[in-house]
Write a structure and sequence with these properties.
Layout: E1 20-22, E2 28-35, E3 41-47, E4 52-54, E5 65-67, E6 75-76, E7 78-82, E8 86-93, E9 100-108, E10 111-115, E11 120-122, E12 137-139, E13 159-162, H1 198-203, H2 205-211, E14 215-218, E15 222-223, E16 234-238, H3 245-257, E17 261-266, H4 276-284, H5 337-354, E18 358-361, H6 369-382, E19 387-390, E20 407-408, H7 411-423, H8 428-439, H9 444-447, E21 451-453, H10 462-465, H11 470-481, E22 486-490, H12 518-533, E23 543-548, E24 553-560, E25 563-570, E26 576-578, E27 585-589, E28 594-598, E29 602-604, E30 609-614
Parallel strand pairs: 13-14, 13-22, 14-17, 17-18, 18-19, 19-20, 21-22
Antiparallel strand pairs: 1-2, 2-8, 3-6, 3-9, 4-5, 7-8, 9-10, 9-12, 10-11, 15-16, 23-24, 24-25, 25-30, 26-29, 27-28, 27-30
Helix pairs in contact: 5-6, 7-8, 7-11, 11-12
Length: 620
């Protein structure tokens, strides 16, 4: 029977994982999970696996040798984050020879448990077990090639997502035949065309530079029959309704002149029903050269018009794999050498020809890992500081390895923000726990590059999530812009563009300033400017000062050796009486550009916020 005071069932660590990873070529990060409020302290013992010496330093001739650990004083871990169920402990160590064995000591009252890779033991009764290396976790060696790396420029990037068909029409001569008047229909559908193109984006680059963004993410721009272009017919051609390769080259050059990077959308999970390869399979069946390029279950392949297709109750009518159950989008067999070569040529072509800076990978979690490893190699070889973002909606650690993707669209960030600010289905404390869980989900060097969005072409717009309340929407942007990683603005959010779920979220951009919310523009513009001015806003780690479920407010700080930045968010329709001893004194209100004095209390307006720089004269 387990008579320990510590809940050992909740204790968890895993070597060479998100719990033990190389932060850089010299530094190892270790994490340990315990039950919430269960353990008083956690210590680490670590040392080189091969560092053995005499048992006694005073007796150099003594024949018995013992292992010598580097942490002569057992090192205390920091209880960094808590969730509703667990505490997460953290320490950074620098093994002398870039390899180490390590073990944890958990303390509660007078109890000391040694937690190793093979057993847990009470060392107050079994002290000799401290030196049993058989039970130590092992990090064999920090090989530099295995350390996660991403382009440094990404850390300072604020992305802007553009849905090209609905952003701006710069050339009416390339409009589709059935083009509608710009913005004439609010309840838009995917079969509607309004004439947006790449020349329209070029015309608006100064607008984007003025907003402050320095990265553009385009949804697909290659030849396709749809408005969204996720069903691609020709990967080597810009859709004529958007322009041509020369227009894209001009766009990239003009963007680069303004310090703006360009990301394109790679749809390598599937293609269009009308792609020549799939059409060949429909025509020639098992005799087709391309029959193994797709996941065909049986022949003949369904050869009717996809518009007439219908599902049975089990959705098993299709005899070929697709994206979801969409007959228009047959799934590529990316394990096939020729398919792999074809798609990798696409990746290389647009980097080489147009000098793009990044790829976003559509439905990346359904494509095999071997393909993404080959894709990463091609991108790295073609442009060394290239950036890769996957579309993964869940825990994506398996894809965020040094030989695969740099980042993913961070829906694990978006959903808690929606719940707290928009749906109001969780309170401040639960929001804190969910954000803490996210911060422990990935290694810190990965977290610094995550693609943090509030909405996208696949979701309801953030204004609608906030039930039309623009003050609350502003708070969501305050949190996003003061969080680590790389923030993303979905086109039109900055001027108050509304929209329900896909496809209503793809409305035409509003360019009439009389119809734009210029106050929202100034708010997001200022937050972007502040994020560039104050690196503290980009720091990954959060130190929570206070959360309160009754008043539904958040107070947290970003802190480094260079200073402290406090953020106060009052997510309620009542004034907040700010009474926190830590926030007494003189501060620089960076958002409102003034010095304020906080005494025993300070009133924060309903749905208001503060971003405060602690002044040097206040001792930290």
């Amino acid at each position: 029977m387990n008579m320990t005071k510590i809940n050992i069932a909740a204790v968890y660590h895993e070597a060479k994982s998100r719990y033990a990873y190389a932060y850089d070529k010299d530094t190892l990060h270790l994490r340990l999970r315990t039950a919430k409020n269960d353990v008083d302290n956690v210590k680490v013992i670590y040392g080189d696996p091969f560092n053995w010496g005499p048992k006694s330093k005073d007796d150099k001739t003594y024949t018995e040798h013992v292992w010598k650990y580097e942490s002569t004083e057992h090192l205390n871990m920091v209880k960094e984050y808590e969730t509703d169920l667990h505490d997460y402990w953290f320490i950074a160590i620098r093994p002398k020879y870039r390899r180490t064995k390590y073990v944890f000591i958990l303390e509660k009252g007078d109890e000391q448990l040694l937690y190793g890779c093979r057993y847990i033991v009470d060392i107050s009764k079994n002290k000799e077990k401290v030196l049993d290396l058989f039970n130590y976790f092992n990090y064999p060696f920090i090989n530099p090639i295995d350390v996660y790396k991403a382009p440094e420029w990404v850390k300072e990037t604020i992305w802007y997502q553009i849905y090209p068909e609905r952003f701006a029409n710069g050339n009416k001569e390339n409009d589709p035949k059935n083009v509608l008047e710009w913005g004439s229909i609010e309840n838009v559908k995917n079969n509607m065309f309004f004439g947006g193109d790449l020349e329209g984006v070029i015309e608006k680059l100064d607008y984007l530079a003025n907003l402050g963004i320095n990265g553009i993410y385009f949804t697909p721009i290659f030849t396709s029959p749809s408005s969204h272009k996720y069903d691609i017919i020709n990967y080597f051609e810009i859709d004529p309704q958007f322009g041509d390769i020369q227009v894209l080259k001009t766009l990239v050059k003009e963007a680069h002149k303004r310090g703006i990077r360009v990301m394109l959308d790679a749809v390598f999970n599937h293609c269009s029903f009308y792609h020549p390869f799939f059409q060949d399979v429909l025509k020639y069946g098992e005799k087709s050269t391309y029959k193994d390029y797709f996941h065909i279950k049986k022949f003949p392949v369904f050869a009717g018009n996809p518009k007439d297709f219908h599902f049975d109750d089990d959705k098993n009518v299709l005899n070929y794999d697709t994206f979801a159950f969409t007959p228009f989008m047959p799934k590529w067999n990316t394990e096939h050498p020729k398919v792999k070569e074809y798609l990798l040529d696409v990746a290389r072509f647009w980097i080489t020809e147009c000098d793009i800076d990044a790829w976003r990978l559509d439905v990346s979690n359904e494509v095999d890992h071997a393909f993404w490893r080959a894709f990463r190699k091609v991108c790295d070889e073609t442009k060394p500081d290239f950036f890769i973002v996957g579309e993964n909606w869940d825990d994506s650690y398996a894809w965020l390895q040094p030989d695969q993707m740099h980042s993913v669209m961070n829906y694990e960030f978006m959903f808690p923000v929606w719940s707290f600010f928009g749906h109001r289905s969780i309170k401040a404390t639960e929001f804190k726990y969910k954000i803490n869980k996210l911060l422990c989900l990935y290694p810190k060097n990965i977290g610094e590059y995550l693609f943090n969005l509030l909405d996208s072409h696949d979701t309801t717009r953030i204004l609608n999530i906030c039930q039309g309340n623009k003050q609350i929407m502003k708070l969501a942007y305050v949190f996003q812009m003061t969080f680590g990683g790389t923030p993303v603005v979905y086109y039109g959010d900055e001027i108050g563009l509304a929209g329900g779920h896909d496809p209503d979220n793809r409305r035409c951009m509003i360019w009439d300033e009389n119809l734009q919310d210029l106050d929202m523009f100034k708010h997001i513009q200022k937050l972007i400017s502040l994020r560039k001015t104050y690196p503290l806003m980009r720091e990954l780690d959060i130190k929570w000062v206070d959360t309160n479920d009754n008043t539904n407010h958040l107070i947290y700080k970003k802190q480094t050796k260079d200073g402290t930045l406090y953020v106060v968010i009052n997510n309620q329709n009542q004034p907040l009486n700010l009474m926190k001893e830590e926030l007494v004194g003189d501060f620089y209100d960076v958002y409102n550009d003034k010095i304020i004095t906080i005494k025993s209390n300070y009133i924060v307006n309903p749905y208001g916020f503060l971003i405060l720089k602690k002044l040097c004269k206040n001792k930290e």
